Amino acid sequence: MSLLCGFLIFVTNFFFNVISPFYLENARGLKPNLAGFILMAYPIVQVIVAPLAGALSDKIGPELITFCGLILILLSQIGYMLTDLGTPLWLFTAIIGFVGFGNGIFQAPNNTIVMNSVEAKDLGVAGGMNALVRNLGMVVGISFATTVLFAAMSHYKGTKVTTYINGQPDVFIYGMHVSFLIAAIICAVAALITGYRLIKRPTQPTKGKS
């Protein structure tokens, strides 16, 4: 189940990776360098939080921490859904950092669950599966996000849309909101899976569960 949750979160994250440049550069008219600085909030926060989350998971166990991370990511997707052209850039940057925080406390403990679910002789296989799920989530996330975004924009516009329409940011904003709604649903599924695992933890062995 941890592999499935990891896959779902990478799919969710790549909705943002696809959509955010359109929002910042096309809809908001920011220069690429400023947009890049804003997007740096995600990796900066994650690289700070992840080691701390990993250390904490070694002390109290990884299940609760991964669940908290998923809730933070879910709340962030809702924040993206509420974002529009009037949203202050500082607030949008804060939401990005919030996602980085959520991912930081999710990824390391989730990886711990995966690696602890197998015998020592199978650690290489578990690591390979983890990498496969991560890359598969990226590919599916990019493809799915692009499909949902332009399908929603086409529905709103009433004609086929395959790119950002200059001078009509409302079309993009509608597509963005629909896309992040789908991303929030995907993240909610991962949170439900992890919550169920957390509830069942006292009665179910973790060995062999991933």
From TrEMBL:
GO cellular component, one term: plasma membrane
Keywords from the UniProt entry: Membrane, Transmembrane, Transmembrane helix, Transport
TM region(s), chain numbering: 7-24, 36-57, 64-83, 89-106, 136-156, 176-199
Membrane topology qualifier: Multi-pass membrane protein
Superkingdom of the organism of origin: Bacteria
Domain Major facilitator superfamily (MFS) profile: 1-210
MF annotations from Gene Ontology: transmembrane transporter activity
InterPro entries, sorted: MFS, MFS_dom, MFS_trans_sf
Pfam families (UniProt xref): MFS_1
Subcellular localization: Cell membrane
Protein name listed in UniProt: Major facilitator superfamily transporter
Species: Secundilactobacillus silagei JCM 19001
